[in-house]
Prior knowledge:
α1 runs antiparallel to α2 (39-48) and α1 (6-34) packs antiparallel against α8. This protein has 18 helices and no strands. The mean pLDDT is 86. It has one domain: Up-down Bundle (Growth Hormone, Chain: A). By secondary structure, the protein is mainly α.
Amino acid sequence: MKSRSPWTWIPSLYFAEGLPYVVVMTVSVILYKRMGISNTDIALYTSWLYLPWVIKPLWSPFVDLVKTKRWWIYTMQLLIGGGMAGVAFTISGDFFFQATLAFFWLLAFSSATHDIAADGFYMLGQTEEQQAFFIGIRNIFYRVAMLTGQGVLIFLAGKLEASTGQIPFAWTLIFFVLCGSFIGLAAWHRFVLPFPERDKQRERVTFSTIMTAFGRTFLVFFQKKGIIPALLFMLTYRLGESQLVKLASPFLLDSNEAGGLGLSTSEVGVTYGGVGVISLLTGGILGGFFISRYGLKRCLWPMAFAISLPNLVYLYMAYALPESRVIISGCVGVEQFGYGFGFTAYTMFLMLFAEGEYKTSHYAISTGFMALGMMLPGMLSGWIQEQIGYPYFFVWVMACCIPAFLVIPFLRFKEKEGDENEE
Length: 423
């Protein structure tokens, strides 16, 4: 096995995993808001883009059996770059909404396939001890990618909007930059990714082989002990966040008359890209440290509170409508710290639940249920907000955090051999 230090590829791999996700899920929201699309349409159509992540388990056995995960990683990164170019070319067109949505769908499918390969590669290319150690690091760089999208890219888009006076042209330049970035990432990973012994092309792969593996994969997954509470946990842990993430940026961008804070595009970028990045990094590092030291069972409850309670800052801002950029940035920082700290427990649970013969495919199935839990509530969030307004909407978001706490006592998972809390 050709080895590489995990530090040379894990940060860039999970940055490459997170960036297209945030472009499809969040940057698209701000783009469409700036282009005059309503909150209801934004939330509905961009939530549909979760679908590839929901159904990605349907083709995860194919990724498992055909070629290597290493090959899938850099090939999908090239395809993602092509999708970014497609968005750039169509933003200024007469039917920009339909055309860009089509390319966002291409990005979503390519990114979901990349996730299958990258997450499988992560588990195949490291020992269990290394996986536990680097889980905080991978989450950090995944979220750094998301904040790069929400922060740096949005800030640059705002500056370009102001300097050129042309919103479509400004966003076209942003997506051309993204296209070039992914071509560079594909070249980097083609060179730097290691060659784990277990990541090899299967021999004598046929349609029958794939279908047999497909059926066996799902059968074994749904026969796992504790499957019902595990599925409920996957669907509810991010229930509040699934709706908050769709309306957070529109809330910051909307005028005071519309119930928002009236920030400019650049100010939204600075808010997420400044204190948001620092808070996220701090939360992610601490989350990985506490899980590696104390284990998931002891950290699960505190981390569940951490990912839920900081959403209160949006409820405060919706009622207070603060004008101070310091207060707004501080509130976003609290929310991002809670997410960085709390999401670590979710990721670790999915990895532990996926352990076994089909760990790559089972992890993909688990993240598919996670995406389903983000997609369905997100589709309705824009309509709910427009019916009841921002203040009551954020009250609703807080109420949606309760179901996960009701499920946690029933979870069963095994952290190590001999663990009493076995599946």
